[in-house]
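Memo to structure team: turn this sequence into structure tokens by end of day. - J.P.
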Amino acid sequence: MGSQDMADPHESKPHGPSRPSASPPHRIRLRPPWQTDPREGSTRWRRHFNRPTGLDPQQRVWIVMKRIAGRGHAAVNGCPLGHFGDEPGVPCRFDVTDLLRLHNQLELTVEGALAEGAPASAPPADVCLEIHG
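Reply from structure team:
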């Protein structure tokens, strides 16, 4: 099941929000440090980040994953967001606005093996926060 088939309220179709804002989104890349936790049959990455400051009430915050190296699932602050990597080359977006706290943790878990050539020390995708609205 691809990310666009999920009925989860925090997940969108891979093409982003249904009503993109007139201006381009502000992007915040989630670069290292990521904590890696290899397990039998899966690998988990965790990254702490703060809630973006100065958000207007109409703005939405999305976690966007591109260049995904593997299939798995994502969670923010322990709340499941949905699956990623079901369709190679298709970015995955999750609306996390209502889940954000002052301090947050993103968790990405890849089941099975990573895509060939993907380093185990790096997260399984390019990850950023996008602020829309």
